Amino acid sequence: MKAVVATELNDFSVINVDLDAPKAGEVLVKMKATGVCHSDLSIINGTIPSPFPVVLGHEGAGIVDAVGEGITHVSPGDHVILSFIPQCGECFHCIHDEPYLCTAGKPDGCLLDGTTRVHNSDEDVYVMSYLGNMAEYAVVPGICVTPIDKDIDWKAAALVGCGVTTGVGAAIKTAKVTPGSTVAVFGCGGVGVSVIQGARIAGAKQIIAVDLSAEKMENARRFGATHTVTPGGDAVREVMELTGKRGVDFAFEVIGHHSTIEMCIKCARRGGSAVLVGVGRTTERFSVNSLILPLTSKNIIGCMYGSVNFKVDFPMYLDFYRQGLLDLDGMVTNTYTLDEAPQAFADMESGRNTRGVILHG
Ligand code: APR
Ligand code: ZN
Predict the structure, then answer these.
(1) Cα separation of 93 and 180, whole Å?
(2) What is the rounded CA–CA span in Å between residue 223 and residue 164?
(3) Ligand 1: distance of its center to the CA of 296 in Å?
(4) Is residue 254 a contact partner of residue 277, using CB atoms and an 8 Å limit?
(5) d(Cα 127, Cα 11) in Å, to the nearest integer?
(6) What is the pTM of this model?
(7) Residues pairing with 302 in the sheet
(8) In whole angstroms, what is the distance from residue 305 CA to residue 310 CA?
(9) Which phi and psi (to 5°) does residue 349 adopt?
């Protein structure tokens, strides 16, 4: 089958690989749509550490083709969304209502048993986040899939697999944005506009979009941003001015850069929250004046996968979509074939896309 494989650091291409049948507890999924997320690029460029070669892709939806021994919650023909974190239901975090921190697997490029089903001749090929679904098919852990209604558009379903769940969840689940509150969002790509949509759904009265790009900030208005700042200007000063010098109740960083993290923390009001969503390099460090947190009672909150419980939340976000609360169609700027994946990455890097989606046919 064809797959988009990062062969070594800073190099990737669409190549043919072999895929084994699913083992016990695993599911073979024929992919229908795969979103192209900044985290895929972060694997290629080494921001997120990974072994190579590795099949990219961690945001997707498809049809169950075959199931391994012991799988009962899905069967061939079911439509499913993939979760890039397993949910075993048994580990410490799963039983303490933190399934997004499930420890069933290790992020080492393998499935749960420490091996991979993908090979290129004699060489093992790893998979990104237990999935590696930027490919025609993916064999994934059964505890990474959940069924969805068959009438849902594939592109919308794919986005729920990562960006939408991360962003909307950051607002409504991690931060618990309250009605009438004020919000600032640093970084208005696919995940950032999802935070904006989550804040709008939660009833925030003011949502300030911050991005390097004027187009991205204007685009953010269609998803619920009420204000934008001057591109290249002093974003912290402008956010303070827009909030009567107080700062926002909830500030989100959706880039993963120390400078924007520091700005995000400054923009949170006394007693407010700075929510860190963006994934930076392992070498990235931000600094905070040690007086600030005790004197202001600010909270700095980490956000993993929008605090998702995917069996509950994936269908909930699809319901929001059906009800017209969540605009997923508008987030899909361009679609591509699997062979066009290099173009999809180029368009993400040049800032052309809110989200690019690969359609597998
Ligand atoms: N200041 C302001 N905006 C910035 C800056 C900066 N210094 N650097 C980048 N941006 C903006 C870009 O202009 C773009 O609009 O951040 C946005 C990032 O968007 P995408 O590339 O679409 O990334 P996305 O998929 O939304 O992911 C964002 O979340 O899940 C993580 O790993 C992911 O860290 C990444 C982040
Ligand atoms: Zn992602």
Answers:
(1) 32
(2) 12
(3) 28
(4) yes
(5) 16
(6) 0.97
(7) 276
(8) 10
(9) -65, -35
CA-to-CA distance for 323 and 327, rounded, in angstroms?
10
Distance 330 CA to ligand 1 centre (A): 18
The protein residue whose alpha carbon is closest to atom 6 in ligand 1 is 212
Residue 210 above 90 pLDDT? yes
Q: How confident is the model at residue 272 (pLDDT cuts 50, 70, 90)?
A: very high
Q: Using the atom order of ligand 1, give the atom closest to the CA of residue 166.
A: 30
Sign of the C-alpha dihedral, residues 86, 188, 203, 325? negative
SS3 call for 354:
coil
CA of 338 to the centre of ligand 1 (A): 23
Give residue 232's identity as a one-letter amino acid code.
Answer: G
pLDDT number for residue 213: 95
pLDDT, one tens digit per residue, over 175-193 is: 999 999 999 999 999 999 9
Q: Which phi and psi (to 5°) does residue 286 adopt?
A: -115, 160
Q: Measuring CA to CA, which residue among 46, 66, 16, 29 is closest to residue 161?
A: 29
Minimal CA–CA distance to 41: which of 354, 350, 347, 345?
345
Furthest C-alpha separation in the chain:
63
38 vs 35, 45, 316, 348, 349, CA distance in Å? 10, 11, 24, 8, 9
Q: Which residues surround ligand 2, an ion (CB under 5 A)?
A: 37, 39, 162
Distance, CA 278 to ligand 1 centroid (Å)?
Answer: 7
The residue to which tokens 């987030």 are assigned: 331
Ligand 1: lining residues by beta carbon, under 6 Å: 37-39, 42, 163, 166, 186-192, 211-213, 216, 254-257, 260, 277-279, 348, 351
Average pLDDT over residues 8-13: 97
Note whether 127 and 54 are within 8 A (CB): yes
CA dist 279 to 46, 305, 314, Å? Answer: 12, 11, 22
